[in-house]
């Protein structure tokens, strides 16, 4: 149930603009004119420069049951310019270049003040259809019908409204078609290796699923100095691409005969990998990753998203006797406001190679083509320009 929204900021008017709206689950997005309300207290209205497509958008786009909901504006990887600010916004101003993120970083709750967590307790992550503080929407169609938000960003619109806790001010000199990648996918994968796992120089890493997130994990492991990075996937064709991201060995999980993936990895590594990353979202793969994680100090990091209610099952003696760690990683353990600028500096210093993640660029009007390419496995990241 939506709470009552605070009053709009005095003097600002709604903006009419173009958006790609999900009207029916799994059907082509509809490009239409919408109204974007003025920002309320603690909110900013952003003009999107470009947005990229993440598989999480596809996952929710297909959902016919909650947290799927229509009509909705999807999209959560983007970069834009602040068009206007609501009351009590002091962190950014009109004209600032910002990256919106689904993770809040309020800066004053116990978790945000700690270096032990990136999970804001004041504005916790959810797949809410509204704004984080009040649950209401800032979008309506031209008939006055409410259009729902997605992950507090909704970047498939020329303008969007985002809470100030969910925006990070960045250097406008960074190419926007690269900086937008740090809104979600690349940050999540690189951060999982860098922050969540704290991959050590000379260590061995196993990555289950080498799509965009898995390749970002490989990039992070490479940056951390991992000696061996083993990619596990069902598609042999991915190996050549994966080499560009630091993957040193490849295991095709469909051609192992009677052996399980964990048996093969344990044999390859002489007892298991130091760090395992599950990037697909299958409970069975989480168990396989845990099974090929080295006893005593091995760490398995879960990044994949499966359907709500999925259950992981482990033998209690296996957990007790092996001393392994299993941990989830949301947004790679990164604190957006402090860590995104570091990643952008790494890109400027040519350490973090963002360019190789972008396989297509196109106009915003071609967004349904981008969806098709990602579903067919023909792209890593497709960047769409709003008005190039």
UniProtKB/TrEMBL annotation:
<dbReference type="Pfam" id="PF00107">
    <property type="entry name" value="ADH_zinc_N"/>
</dbReference>
<dbReference type="GO" id="GO:0008270">
    <property type="term" value="F:zinc ion binding"/>
</dbReference>
<protein>
    <recommendedName>
        <fullName>alcohol dehydrogenase</fullName>
        <ecNumber>1.1.1.1</ecNumber>
    </recommendedName>
</protein>
<comment type="similarity">
    <text>Belongs to the zinc-containing alcohol dehydrogenase family. Class-III subfamily.</text>
</comment>
<dbReference type="InterPro" id="IPR002328">
    <property type="entry name" value="ADH_Zn_CS"/>
</dbReference>
<dbReference type="GO" id="GO:0046294">
    <property type="term" value="P:formaldehyde catabolic process"/>
</dbReference>
<dbReference type="Pfam" id="PF08240">
    <property type="entry name" value="ADH_N"/>
</dbReference>
<feature type="domain" description="Alcohol dehydrogenase-like N-terminal">
    <location>
        <begin position="41"/>
        <end position="170"/>
    </location>
</feature>
<dbReference type="GO" id="GO:0005829">
    <property type="term" value="C:cytosol"/>
</dbReference>
<feature type="domain" description="Alcohol dehydrogenase-like C-terminal">
    <location>
        <begin position="213"/>
        <end position="347"/>
    </location>
</feature>
<dbReference type="InterPro" id="IPR013149">
    <property type="entry name" value="ADH-like_C"/>
</dbReference>
<dbReference type="InterPro" id="IPR013154">
    <property type="entry name" value="ADH-like_N"/>
</dbReference>
<keyword id="KW-0560">Oxidoreductase</keyword>
<dbReference type="GO" id="GO:0051903">
    <property type="term" value="F:S-(hydroxymethyl)glutathione dehydrogenase [NAD(P)+] activity"/>
</dbReference>
<dbReference type="InterPro" id="IPR036291">
    <property type="entry name" value="NAD(P)-bd_dom_sf"/>
</dbReference>
<dbReference type="InterPro" id="IPR011032">
    <property type="entry name" value="GroES-like_sf"/>
</dbReference>
<keyword id="KW-0862">Zinc</keyword>
<keyword id="KW-0520">NAD</keyword>
<keyword id="KW-0479">Metal-binding</keyword>
<comment type="subunit">
    <text>Homodimer.</text>
</comment>
<dbReference type="GO" id="GO:0004022">
    <property type="term" value="F:alcohol dehydrogenase (NAD+) activity"/>
</dbReference>
């Amino acid at each position: 149930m939506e709470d009552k929204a605070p009053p709009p900021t005095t003097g600002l008017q709604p903006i009419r603009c173009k958006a790609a709206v999900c009207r029916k689950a799994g059907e082509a997005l509809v490009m239409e004119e919408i109204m974007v309300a003025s920002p309320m207290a603690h909110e900013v209205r952003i003009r999107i420069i470009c947005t990229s497509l993440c598989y999480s958008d596809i996952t929710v786009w297909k959902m016919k049951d909650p947290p799927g909901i229509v009509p909705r504006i999807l999209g959560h990887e983007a970069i834009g310019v602040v068009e206007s600010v609501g009351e009590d916004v002091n962190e950014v101003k009109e004209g600032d270049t910002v990256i919106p993120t689904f993770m809040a970083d309020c800066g004053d709750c116990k978790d945000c003040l700690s270096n032990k967590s990136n999970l804001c307790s004041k504005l916790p992550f959810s797949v809410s259809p509204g704004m984080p503080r009040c649950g209401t929407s800032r979008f309506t169609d031209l008939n006055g019908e409410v259009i729902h938000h997605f992950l507090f960003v909704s970047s498939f619109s020329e303008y969007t409204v985002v809470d100030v806790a969910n925006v990070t001010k960045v250097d406008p000199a960074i190419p926007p078609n690269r900086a937008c990648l740090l809104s979600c996918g690349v940050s999540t994968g690189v951060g999982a290796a860098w922050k969540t796992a704290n991959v050590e120089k000379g260590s061995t890493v196993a990555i289950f699923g080498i799509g965009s997130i898995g390749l970002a994990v490989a990039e992070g492991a490479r940056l951390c100095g991992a000696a061996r990075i083993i990619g596990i996937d069902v598609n042999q064709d991915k190996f050549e691409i994966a080499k560009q991201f630091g993957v040193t060995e490849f295991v095709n999980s469909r051609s192992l005969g009677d052996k399980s993936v964990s048996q093969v990895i344990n044999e390859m590594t002489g007892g298991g990998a130091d760090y395992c990353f599950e990037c697909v979202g299958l409970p069975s793969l989480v168990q396989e990753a845990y099974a090929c994680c080295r006893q005593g100090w091995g760490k398995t990091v879960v990044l994949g998203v499966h359907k709500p209610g999925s259950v992981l099952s482990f033998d209690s003696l296996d957990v007790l006797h092996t001393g392994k760690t299993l941990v989830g990683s949301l947004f790679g353990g990164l604190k957006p406001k402090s860590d995104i600028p570091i990643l952008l500096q790494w890109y400027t210093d040519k350490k973090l190679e963002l360019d190789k993640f972008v396989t297509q660029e196109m106009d915003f009007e071609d967004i349904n083509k981008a969806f098709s390419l990602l579903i067919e496995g023909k792209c890593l990241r497709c960047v769409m320009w709003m008005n190039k």
